[in-house]
Every structure is written in C-alpha cells, then in structure tokens.
Amino acid sequence: MRLLTNCTLVPHPGESVPDAVIAIDGETIAWAGPLTDLPGDYAGWEREDLGGRLVTPGLIDCHTHIVHGGHRAGEFRMRLEGESYDAIARAGGGIVSTVTATREATEDALLADALTRADALIAEGVTTLEIKSGYGLDEATELKMLRVARAVGDARPVDVVTTFLGAHAVPADYKGEAESYIDTVCIPALRAAHAEGLVDAVDGFCEGIAFSPDEIARVFDAARALGLPIKLHAEQLSDLGGAAMAAERGAMSVDHLEYLNADDVQILAQHGTVAVILPGAFYTLRETQAPPIEALRAAGVPMAVATDCNPGSSPMASLLLAMNMSATLFRMTPDECLAGVTTNAAKALGLTDRGDIAQGQRADLCVWNIGAPEELSYRIGFNPLHQRYYRGRPC
Ligand code: DI6
Ligand code: FE
Fold first, then answer.
1. Probe ligand 1: pick from 62, 64, 65, 78, max atoms within 8 Å of CB?
2. What are the residues whose beta carbons fall under 8 Å from the beta carbon of 127, sequence distance 6 or more?
3. Among 2, 144, 233, 249, who pairs with 205 as Cys (CB 3.0-4.6 Å)?
C-alpha cells in the first residue's frame, strides 16, 4: 500500500489534475485524484513524493513482431536503391526470408534477440506488449515463436499478449497454393498453439502479396470455433476490403489502413473496431498515401498507435517515436497519440483493466520528466521516462 503524491495526473488524454495523489493497493489503483479530495482512510499509507512530475497510464504497444530471426538490412539497402517492398517480397525476399532465419534459430537465440527489443520498449514506459508469430509458417516454428513470446513476459516486468499470425505470408513450398497452406498448415497450427495455451488472439495479413479476404475468413472461422478474438493487417498497400470483412466478424482491431475507403470507415465505426495506426511502416516504405485519419476521427473510430516493430517494414523499437510520427506524418493530435498508446491500445487488445488511471485499474503507470503531455509526441529521439510502475511496483 503506497501513496504517490505531488504529481500531475493525466488520467485520460486531454485531462490534467495538478497536485494529485494515486493510492496503490497491491497491483491495483485504489484511488486517484486531487490531494484536496483524498479520503482520510489513506492517511497512514507510505508516501512517495513524485516531485511534481507528470503521470500517465503505462504505455501499451498493441502491435509488434519483436520475435524473429535475423535482420533485413540487405533489403533495406535494396529499397534505398529503388527496389519496392512488393517486388522484393514477390522475388522471395521480404517476410519469407525472415521465415528462413526464424526456422533456423533456437528458442534461446530468438529470446535473447527479442529481449533487446522488449528492453528498448520497456525503457520508454511500455508495460503491456503484444507479440505476434508469423515468421514460422509451419507448425513447429509458429509454436516456437509463441513460446518465446510468452518467455519474454516471464523474463521481464511486462505483460505479453500473444497473437497467432500463421496467415502472414505464403511459404515458399506453398507458392501459388495459399488456400492449401491455410487449410493444411495454418489452421492445424492454430489449433495446436491454442491447445498449448499460447494464443490470445488471431491475426492475418490481407494483401495482394499475402492472403485474400476469403482466405483470411477461413482462419477467422477457425478462430471463432476456438473462442479466440480476431484482428487483421488490412489495407496497408491496397484496398481489398479486409478491414470491413474483419469488422463485420467482430474484430477487435484492424491495423495499417492506408488504403481504407470512406464506406469502410463507417463500417469500423458501426462495429466499434479499433483502427491501429502504424506510422513506422508508412515511413520505412516511404508510402505517400496516409491512413484516413480525419474520416476516422469524424466517424468516432477509436485510434490506437503502435510500433509494428518488425525486421522488414518497421524496424522501430520506440513507441514514443511512433507517437511523434503519428502526429507529424498523419496530423494526429498529441492527445490522440497518447490515447493511441494507452486507452485505445488497451481496447485494441480487448483489455478492460488498464489504459486509464482510475480506481480498480491495474497500477501500470509512467512517471515522466516533462511539463505537459504533448511533450511525449513532440520530442524526437528523447526518452523522458523517470519511473515506470508495473503491477504497482516501481521497476
Ligand atoms: N505488415 C507489416 O507491417 C509486417 N507484416 C505485415 O503483415 C511486415 C512484415 C515484414 O516485412 O517482415
Ligand atoms: Fe504488422
């Protein structure tokens, strides 16, 4: 039981409570508000003076691929010389090349490598982290990736939410046979991973270089039969209608969305689907079509922001940079950026016990050396984290 005193509370983006107190009981927020309203029952609790610093909810990175073998710096060089992401993928590079490296890596090696990226995110205040599979594309390697993802959560003070992404790319030995890959490899691997308790949600990559909406729908049917929530990489490079298909099936989120059309924005709004904005991929691929932020905002679609940390299209392990890019590249407001990595990121993961500072919520908090919450989006390459609280503990 402890009281964090003398802080400026940002319980939700856009709100600011000066001279505030947060009462932490075990892993939970027992009370939060202005000092003047603090109930007398807390008088005897141990106090920690935060020196007037600003406190937000712990950050949540709701879309990452931090578990993977190798790197794609060679592909980076090719793209700089003018080769396109699409063309590299179609020529057997891209995602499929990371698959080879991931299949070859041991669990220990994958974990050691993933922890370097997890540590970078944690150092910026991340307390909940989603990690996807999808660089195995065979049962053994998909399960290996998910075990490593769980191991990240065991090795570090961070909550890991796992996502099965077997429908990420068509592996080389199934080239031209996407449907057969889905039925004979992907869905059986999903069932096996679920049986081991390794899957919190199911994702897919709906794109010309990956899977069609119909193919993804087969995976979603299998997910539903297992009672697992779904989400989708959609409309990143072209408009195939994947986002609407996923929203209509009750997806928690649809991610990327550069090519989302106006009608489908309304479908997201109707279903309460979260739009996950991934500026790292837009930036890395030098995309020119931005996601329809204004239309999403006008329709009241909740927007999350994530790193998409992956070795190909978004080799970025900074959620603060993702906030900055969302503001500068997409004109999201600083409040939207903060909501994107807190309350809406929690929503994108289906988590109701975190993302805000309120009574009963998990005591996952960030204490910052900044004067205004906008600074989190405004600075570039600067980490103002003073202290993170994870499950009520400073660490
Ligand atoms: N979209 C992405 O941004 C990542 N996966 C996906 O479906 C990229 C994966 C990669 O290029 O390795
Ligand atoms: Fe991704």
1. 65
2. 58, 59, 60, 157, 158, 159, 354, 364, 365, 366, 388, 389, 390
3. 233
Bigger pLDDT: 215 vs 96: 215
Q: What distance in angstroms lies between residue 310's CA and the mean position of ligand 1's atoms?
A: 7
- Nearest Cα residue to atom 2 of ligand 1: 313
> Quick one: which atom of ligand 1 is closest to the CA of 207?
7
pTM: 0.98
Q: Whose CA is nearest to atom 8 of ligand 1?
A: 313
Residue owning tokens 């910052």? 368
Backbone angles phi, psi at 314, to 5 degrees: -155, 70
- Measured between alpha carbons, how far is 128 from 148 in angstroms, rounded to an integer? 16
> Could you tell me which residues come within 8 angstroms of residue 4 by beta carbon, excluding any fewer than 6 positions away?
21, 22, 24, 48, 50, 55, 365, 367, 389
